[in-house]
Amino acid sequence: MAMQEWEMRQRQKGNTAGAEVARVLREQYGDVPLPVAPERALDIVRFSPEQHGALTERGRLIYAPTGQSIATLREKGRKFWSTWHEEYPDFENLPSRLTEIAIDPQELFLPNSNRKTLAEQEKMIAKYSEKLAKEVPGVQAILGEAPDYVELAFLHLDATDERLFGEKYDYRYTRTKTPTVGSNVALVGGFNARDGLSVLHWDRGKGYDVVWASPLVVPSENR
User: Fold this and answer.
1) Which residues face 218 on adjacent strands?
2) Are 205 and 117 in contact (CB under 8 A)?
3) pLDDT digits (tens, 9 = 90+) for 118-139
4) Starting from the edge strand earliest in sequence, which strands make up the sheet with 61-63, in order?
5) Where does the pLDDT of residue 90 fall: very low under 50, low under 70, confident under 90, or very high at 90 and above?
6) Measured between alpha carbons, how far is residue 79 from residues 83, 153, 154, 175, 199 in Å?
7) DSSP letters along 119-136, please?
8) How far is CA 80 from the centre of its chain?
9) Which tops the pLDDT comparison, 223 or 111?
């Protein structure tokens, strides 16, 4: 594991102070490798059996990302029809979170969450999370990072032969929290059967018709 990946892991865990220390060290010394035991690197935070049952009863599918990035997935033959990110190796090598993720494939996007800013979409996610936590204690809904949605899309394709963000979903995009260039953040969607998945970016302060918010349900940090 390199310094940048460790920084990303700390941000996912809510350890902002640790992440900032890693960022400063990375800027000074580069993305140096860190000694991490392989068995620890793949530890995945999972839902409890009770949470798993409650979520699946409510129509949600559960997946366990394994820390893949755009770069590692492309190396494994996954198709991306967007190419701009090939010039940004730091972005392409960001890993997905190591927690189980639940999604509702029948309601992948929050209703009426398009044409809104990132801040407005995050408020909608927070409200949705509060309601869900009352139904299933110990879980929370989040707006994920770009690699979370990227690996999730391919896990779902393997499991169901269905493309999240594809034709069934009108090729919509979900906004993510991952910064790209300037005030932009990454978008994931437009999953074309011929050309593959698309990763674009859009200004966090602007809404757009096809830019929605797709909540990811994960184990709560305070469960």
Assistant:
1) 140
2) yes
3) 999 999 999 999 999 999 999 9
4) 61-63, 101-103, 216-219, 139-142
5) very high
6) 11, 11, 10, 20, 11
7) HHHHHHHHHHHHHHHHHS
8) 16
9) 111
**Which residues are within 8 A (CB) of 203 and not within 5 positions of it... i.e. 6 or more apart?**
182, 183, 184
Amino acid identity of 195? Answer: D
- Greatest CA span in the chain, whole angstroms? 49
170-214 pLDDT, tens per residue?
999 999 999 999 999 999 999 999 999 999 999 999 999 999 999
Residue 35 neighbours by CB under 8 Å, 6+ apart: none
Residue 216 forms beta bridges with which residues?
A: 142
SS3 68: coil
CA distance 185 to 174: 11
The amino acid at 166: G
- Residue 146, SS3 per DSSP: helix
Rounded Cα gap, residues 219 and 18, in angstroms: 21
Q: Which residue has the tokens 């699946």?
A: 56
Distance (Å, whole) CA 125 – CA 34: 34
- Average pLDDT of the chain? 90
pLDDT of residue 37: 37
Among 7, 40, 3, 1, smallest CA distance to 178 is for 7
